[in-house]
Specification:
This protein has 288 residues and is mainly alpha-helical. The protein has one domain. Helices cover 69% and strands 0% of the residues. It is built from 17 helices and no strands. The protein has helices at 9-22, 28-37, 42-51, 59-66, 71-77, 81-84, 87-106, 108-111, 114-127, 136-142, 150-175, 180-189, 196-203, 207-219, 231-247, 249-255, 257-276. The longest helix has 26 residues, at 150-175. The radius of gyration is 19 Å and the shape is globular.
Length: 288
């Protein structure tokens, strides 16, 4: 049975859960775990951590499923990284990192609390309505076993919901004719996306690629001469998020309005605690 939700309730819930999943990629624990596997390059660490559910894939598969990474960067590390550590070993290291990271950021009292167990069950219930078709990253993660401990169940469910929305978001990007770099530039222009230096450092694009994409967006009327979103650009980004919401509505409708509200409340509580403990770089987002 599905329940009508307030506007953007699913998006607000996603915005509370997704960053807690992402603490993994900024955690020093991830680098320590992967160094133990013999993977030391930061780009290889993060590419392997996210793509491991897909198996020993190459650059082409990851370029398709990640969307906004330069295939030249991917080809430097994939599929070679799997010769150093098999996907199964990477997945085990990833889960160990989630464990130590959440314990460090949230504290033992929160990790073992009834609220964490409640959030895990709510998030897992939402995933029951996720769909696999045309959602490769979600589907690959859905094949993984659900962990036993509540905080890891919560992290696993947040991962599923993140990738489910993300796979739908890629369909929306294609529909609105935003290529990988244009998607990044226009997101940064909202003030909510990653700052350019973080994008260029992690996605493998050059400053010339960024500027060329900005010029294309100016030609389309999405950006103005100063690189700010025009009214048409603001409308385009709003349409993109609304289309993503439609493609991602099933898990939140399945959970119901009261469940979504409670999960959002708990998710924000955990997220604020993690952010307050230094989970993310201070200059991660913004236009500068």
């Amino acid at each position: 049975m599905t329940t009508a939700l307030p506007p953007r309730a699913g998006r607000r819930c996603h915005n509370a859960l997704n960053p807690l999943h992402s603490t993994l990629y900024f955690s020093p624990d991830l680098d320590r775990e992967f160094t133990g596997l013999g993977i030391e390059d930061p780009a290889a660490v993060r590419l392997a951590a996210r793509s491991a559910p897909l198996g020993a894939v190459g650059a082409g598969t990851v370029a398709a499923t990640f969307y906004n990474y330069n295939v030249e960067l991917l080809a430097k590390h994939l599929p070679a990284v799997w010769e150093t550590a098999a996907p199964e070993a990477v997945l085990a290291a990833r889960l160990r990192t989630a464990d130590t990271t959440l314990r460090r950021l949230l504290g033992e009292e929160t990790v073992t609390s009834p609220e964490m167990a409640e959030a895990a069950e709510l998030a897992l219930r939402a995933t029951q309505a996720c769909t696999r078709h045309a959602r490769p990253l979600y589907s690959a993660n859905a094949d993984l076993p659900v962990p036993d401990e509540a905080h890891l169940k919560y992290w696993h469910a947040a991962t599923l919901l993140r990738e489910h929305r993300g796979d739908g978001h890629l369909a929306a990007l294609l529909s609105l004719d935003l290529d990988p770099v244009e998607a990044l530039v226009s997101h940064t222009a909202t003030g909510k996306g990653m700052a350019p230096r973080w994008v260029l450092g992690s996605r493998g694009w050059r400053r010339a690629d960024w500027e060329a994409a900005a010029e294309r967006l100016r030609d389309r009327g999405v950006l103005d001469a100063e690189g700010e979103l025009t009214p048409a650009g603001t409308d385009l980004r709003a349409e993109l998020e609304e289309m993503t919401d439609r493609l991602d509505r099933a898990p939140y409708e399945h959970l119901g309005a009261a469940g979504v509200e409670r999960l959002t409340e708990l998710g924000r509580r955990f997220l604020f605690a993690a952010a307050g403990a230094g989970a993310f770089p201070q200059d991660l987002t913004g236009k500068g």
